[in-house]
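Propose amino acids for all 346 sites.
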């Protein structure tokens, strides 16, 4: 119930005018003090204004403020699918980064289909988002170029096209770290479950694998490189193919934790033990992999940092031409799924 003297009873929603009148300052002063985007002032006037605003029950009218500024403080995020834990983690990190700056993130999924990407972008833009974060970039796709020509703010995350503003992990370094780890354990026959070649993340990790193998002067059998779709089922199929090779690998680097989980299930069905018969390394370090019956060695990707940098690029732009692509370094997390090669110990 409102009291007799409650401003909301008299005037409805408490306004900046109400707070200004009760504080004895101008409306512009109140607006500046209560604007959460500006540095917080601790002056006596600022403290008084905030106290009066709280007592009156003032709530910022986000819609009206957005109309005045011509934006909505809403960011559209496009991901292939949220059933992929990696993409869910990226979206959650973006949502948290948005919340810290007074923004809100909404997501659309496209099953990694180029035409669906375009439809999702149009739908989000019609709903008034201020810009787009795309995690669906693919080699040869001109969609980012079309967005740029239309003057639509956008940034790429996790995958890059090599020219657009992007926030990504250092996939080449991550692929190198995973492969170097297995080489250091004495493995020389290392199979790789690669991702789709249209994804820059997949190409980068494969380049890191080749880098480490070449550095160690370890031969690469073309049959050891099997492409997948980043999914659990494709990871299982790839592992079965690798185990069917006459000189089969003693270790597998899966470019994605989902494919590693699929590979693990296939290896068990084939009667093989991880890590006794074959070592296994994944990528991304999603939460479940440390809880598997055999905790998975994985390459940890700093999703929070990637999300924060993506939002900064989208909202403030690059500081220089060299700042257009921001790269966050990954970290190898060794666990029980990778051990010394038994043949190397003989």
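Proposal:
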């Amino acid at each position: 119930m409102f009291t007799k003297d409650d401003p909301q009873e008299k005037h409805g929603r408490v306004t900046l005018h109400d707070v200004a009148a009760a504080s004895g300052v101008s409306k512009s002063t109140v607006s500046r003090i209560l604007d959460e985007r500006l540095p917080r002032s601790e002056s006596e006037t600022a403290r008084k204004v905030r106290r009066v605003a709280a007592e009156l029950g003032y709530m910022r009218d986000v819609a009206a403020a957005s109309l005045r500024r011509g934006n909505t403080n809403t960011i559209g995020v496009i991901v292939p699918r949220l059933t992929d834990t990696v993409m869910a983690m990226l979206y959650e990190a973006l949502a948290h980064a948005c919340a810290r700056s007074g923004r809100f993130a909404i997501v659309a999924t496209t099953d990694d289909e180029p035409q669906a990407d375009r439809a999702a972008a149009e739908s989000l833009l019609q709903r008034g988002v201020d810009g787009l974060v795309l995690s669906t970039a693919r080699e040869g796709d001109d969609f980012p170029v079309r967005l740029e020509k239309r003057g639509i703010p956008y940034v790429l995350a996790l995958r890059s096209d090599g020219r657009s503003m992007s926030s990504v992990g250092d996939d080449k370094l991550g692929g190198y770290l995973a492969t170097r780890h297995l080489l250091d354990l004495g493995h020389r026959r290392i199979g790789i479950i690669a991702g789709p070649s249209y994804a820059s993340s997949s190409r980068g990790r494969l380049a890191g694998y080749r880098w480490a193998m070449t550095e160690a002067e370890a031969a690469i059998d073309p049959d050891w490189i099997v492409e997948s779709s980043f999914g659990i089922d494709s990871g299982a199929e790839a592992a079965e193919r690798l185990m069917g090779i006459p000189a089969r690998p003693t270790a597998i680097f899966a470019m994605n934790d989902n494919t590693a989980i699929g590979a693990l299930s296939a290896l068990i069905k084939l009667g093989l033990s991880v890590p006794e018969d074959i070592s296994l390394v994944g990528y991304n370090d999603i939460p479940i992999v440390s809880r598997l019956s055999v905790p998975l060695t994985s390459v940890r990707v700093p999703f929070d940092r990637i999300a924060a940098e993506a939002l900064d690029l989208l909202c403030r732009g690059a500081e220089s031409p060299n700042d257009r692509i921001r790269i966050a370094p990954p970290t190898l997390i060794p666990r029980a799924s990778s051990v010394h090669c038994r043949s190397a110990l003989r």
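The CA atoms of residues 167 and 309 lie 6 Å apart. Confidence is low (pLDDT under 50) at residues 1-11.
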